[in-house]
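Thread: Newbie trying to understand structure tokens

Hi all, I'm a second-year student working on a class project, and my supervisor (Dr. K.) asked me to get a predicted structure for one chain before our next meeting. I've only ever worked with sequences, so writing a 3D structure as a token string is new to me. If someone could post the tokens and maybe explain what I'm looking at, I'd be very grateful. Here's the chain:
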Amino acid sequence: MSVLVVGDVIDDIVVRPSSPTIVDSDTVSEITRAPGGSAANQAAWLGSLGVPVRFVGRVGRADLERHRGALASFGVQPLLIPDDAAPTGTIVIVLGERGERNMYTDRGANARMNVDDLPLSLLDGVELLHVNGYALFSDDARHAMLRLIAEARRRDIAITADPCSAAFLPMARRFLEWTSGAAVAFPNLDEAAVLTGRQDADAAARELTAHYPVVVVKLGAQGVVVARQGEAPVRLPIQAGVVRDTTGAGDALCAGFLAAWLRGADALGAAAAGLRTAAVAVSVAGGRPPA
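---
Reply by user tm_fold:
Sure, no problem. This is what the structure looks like when written as tokens:
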């Protein structure tokens, strides 16, 4: 089954301080640079799991071939739009002692996606459209993405959705309206709380099933809550070993779920597969699969 993923492609700058931050002076750190972006990460994990996947995103022209090659190395068909006026997006990720993250985001070219970037022909041969929330957080991109969603519904193409950012969701207050009816939604706990006003994961997941048949609430080190319409929510733990970097763990979980689900697994089986993929993700640096 071919999947289309639309959204951000980013250059991650990951900072791992070797000691507590020394204010107004130098803190010795390990600093690495790697390609990232939630949607691009999801596409890379899907490709690494053997799912035929197309990815559409926008990058600074100087970075076009580098990001094409990075995605293609995982089996992704990269459909990248070069931007002559804006640079590739960048995120600075500062890691804590237990792999937790503080993220400083400049979306760059990603925020300039527009209707010309998303022709309806992108859906030809596609059986699943995965909606990454970042594609709904700027006006032009949202207009283009909603047009694509409407066409997918007209063609009876399955849709799944990931809100992606609790901080940016207030910019897309109608997210539930725009994505309601998607087969599966993948919020983390903070995003589920923004969407429902509920801090309890089970209660938020149950409420979201009014909009989606299956809801997978990502709980980080606590695993996931899986809710299905008309059934009690179920919690599944993650079985992770050494946690090196949590960047992209939620993206890996989403991809692992989708890969299993598209091959016929039920929601709980697919969630278990997603958790196994996330366990791999946290054991390596960066948000993409290990080379």
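A couple of things are worth pointing out once you decode it. Helices lie at 38-48, 64-72, 139-154, 175-179, 189-196, 201-208, 249-262, 267-282. The longest strand covers residues 10-17. Feel free to ask follow-ups in this thread.
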